[in-house]
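step: validate -> pass
step: tokenize input -> pass
step: predict -> running
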Amino acid sequence: MFPIRIRMKIRLTIIAPLLVLAVALTVAVVNYVKYRHEPEYHGKQLSVWLTEGAIAWSEGGDEATGPAKEAVRHMGTNALPALLRMVRAANSPFTLKWQALANKTRFIPSPNLAENENSLAWQGFKWVGADATNAIPALIDIYHQNLSPTSQHAAFGILLEIAPKPELTALVKEAFTNRYDVVRMHAMWELTPTNQPEISVPILITCLSDPSRRVQTLAASKLRQFGTNALSAVPALVPLAVRGTTNSFYNSARVALLHIDPATAAKVLTNGFWTYAQFTNEQAFYKARDEARTNGGDVEAVFRKFHPADTNDSDFDTKFRKAYGMPPPNR
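step: predict -> pass
step: emit ->
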């Protein structure tokens, strides 16, 4: 008889390949069932074109996605059923366990996670173009099904691009109470200074008290864009801006307050990062720097005038000169 340790190694040697084979077969079966009804173009299925398009975009930007974009547009409405299935995709408990196992060993391939399908579907709907409006009712249903954060976010993002204004307005209003902060944040991007401030600013003020700090930060950044039209937000901004004294996460609130109400900022932003004094000094520096560049003046001398402490830093050249497009000092 072999010792117990050796017998265990023998068993693992036999079981491991069988486990890998079982997983590989499972992947093949799942992919076959999932993708067998996809439309094709030039011998490639929709999901293949979408994946190649995503890779091309990551390597060369939008211009590199031409072939994939052409393929999806050629499929047109025939691609909608498959794209809707991809938007609905959500990870099953089995998939999550499978991914956890794949993370522990390099012998087991990772499954195709739902968030990847959701993202590809979002891009696919963009490429289908105007014909995608036929899927609006189904997308609204998916949005309300709350299958997963990424599924709901994808459905919402697609609807923002293809839904007519009446449906879009109602959808954005509803999104501000969505359970997922990523959807609430996406809804905020629809609020711009060209919108009616009397509608947008109160919504953004409410978002300043959102339980998600990411939502709070974005709300402050958006309010800054409204300038003095957002003066009603100052009472809500001040507590967040004060927190920024010791917590850099709230710097966006400090910057917003500085732009919206400098007088209040001068009273409350007296220490920490981006004090009122630092802000006004930096604004004066930018003006003097631009004038020096325009008139052929000494930009380095301007920098040293407004940043005397920084110019004595041993890392001055790497920290500041590169940021302002200035040559390194002579040494």
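step: describe -> The longest strand covers residues 40-41.
step: cleanup -> pass
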